[in-house]
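User
Please review the sequence:
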Amino acid sequence: MEKTAKKKTVLSKKMTVVTVAGVIFALLLIIALIANAVRLGIENKKIKTLESDILKLEQLLQDNEEELLNRKNHEYIERYAREYLDMIKRGEIVYIGR
């Protein structure tokens, strides 16, 4: 009977060690899963911010392209020269209001 009791004790100790190791492994997996979920949330937030920034920059680029096309227009250049550079055409008389 002693041998059987010793075998049961050894087997019981082995099962306890295996169970504890399994629980520790499961806890480590859960911790890793939570950490990855948190990182994923942070990265998704960064992605949304960058996508928003891209949309804003694309709109700014489009606005600047339109402004550039406008500034290449002869009428715009003439109007700008008259308003900001006080230029006049030859033979033109400028009247200044009071």
User: Anything to note?
Assistant: The chain has two helices and no strands. Residues 2-72 form the longest helix (71 residues). Residues 2-84 form one domain.
